[in-house]
Amino acid sequence: MGYRAVFRCIAGCPGEFPLDEPLYRCPRCQNLFEVAHDLDALRTLTGDEWKRTFDGRVGRCTAEHPSAVWAKKEWVAPHLRGASIVSMDEGGTPLMRPEPLARAVGLDWLWLKQCGHSHTGSFKDLGMTVLVSVVRQMIDDGRPVRAIACASTGDTSASLAAYAAAAGVPAVVILPHGKISAAQLVQPIANGARVLALDTDFDGCMRIVQRLAVEAGVYLANSMNSLRLEGQKTVAIEITQQLGWEPPDVIVIPGGNLGNVSALGAGFDLMLSLGLVGRRPRIVVAQAEAANPLYLAYRRGWAFEPVQARTTLASAIQIGNPVSVEKAIRTLQRYDGVVEQASEQELADASAQADRSGLFTCPHTGVALAVLMKLVARGEIARNQRVVVVSTANGLKFPEFKQRYHAGRLEGSARYANPPVELPNDYDAVRRAIDRLEPGPDALRT
What we know:
The protein has helices spanning 39-42, 47-56, 99-105, 124-140, 155-167, 182-190, 202-213, 226-232, 234-242, 259-273, 293-299, 325-334, 344-355, 363-377, 399-406, 427-435, 440-443; strands spanning 5-9, 33-37, 95-96, 109-114, 147-151, 171-176, 194-198, 218-220, 250-254, 282-288, 338-342, 386-391. By secondary structure, it is an alpha/beta fold.
């Protein structure tokens, strides 16, 4: 059908650039690019026809559409040949409705979009399949790409290493030494990436990898590369599709480097432009109090200044100078955006409270849930509003966080700690312990 997408400057500078060029910033003003689609071509189908098209691809696996991301290929990277796609069945993750948690928070309608139910355990797979597939096609077409590189606080490195290994492309990941979980560190190591652990924080790693990316043959995989966001925007489309093509009233998402915020907006913008939905949800960005530059900007009327991020349990969002902040602010201004923060105590308790409803949340999802609880308590989110929290990673990546919380080894109190009860080998002692059990729903409120 002649669908087409190009890079364009977010500040509106003239010119457009092909997606298969290693470009990340506008050559005129140095602002980031965004991916612009040919809306006239896409409008050859009506909104209802696009809905039927996407619904007809659910659960199917073909060369052109091997995953839930690539089921939206025309809206993502239409120039890619099917043979170039590197996919591990990303997307298609559950939209869970934890009713005990909803009751405890004070909501009638609450869902968690479980993006951690993906190949490498985080939402990063949604974007990495697009980026690595484009690089694979570039190499097949004779472009000199020696390696794909990223700075990471854990999840990006795991995703890049896996997809690059599947594509047969060398990967280089630059991590802050000692600041990610063991589970996150072992993933890129196991997949054969060259892992460089630097004595700095994420922002320091990001400065290094941006210098590398201007050299020939090194391709940047961080979210300042707009190709990543093309895959990540499908989470907005997928949530809406799972809700019967009716967007929620509010979406809460944890924010670190902030690419995911603008990706959400891009997904809803496209659905609005093509007639699949008729309204925008409100987007709430949740930040850790220890790494809160967007929250501070929000409180100052969007006047942004970087900060020195402090240590937080939510290590993947321990970022003081987010690359995608301008895109994020533009998105939040369109989407009646709110930014709120959570303390270490609040995020740890919120994560543990959610686990009591059968979930197993990462600390970053704990940040989002803590912020949700604050906004509901203040009346900024009404009881009858339909709310989706984006859970960005699998809790199994953070076992030390869970263990330390329930053992009482985190700073502060642990309201929902549930340490094992040590007993003698005695039936009566076991029976007495069982008799003291509280009903499940009450445990969420204690």
